[in-house]
Amino acid sequence: MEKITLKVNGMHCKSCKMLVEDGLGDLDGVEAVMVSYEQGTCDLNYDSSKVSLEKIKETIREEGYEVE
Hints:
Shape: globular
Structural class: alpha+beta
Strand order of the largest sheet: 2-3-1-4
């Protein structure tokens, strides 16, 4: 199990938080997601044998946000 914190730019409200959390929560292998739009961060636990970090970042981008 991997634990990471990603910097996410462009979030400004609870709806932004929910979009990112829901999008990542739908990925097989993502165990836990906690997004803070106030801090612009996304903490998550995931199984790297089921989902890649690149897929996680791609999913955030598909929701309309930038990942550093």
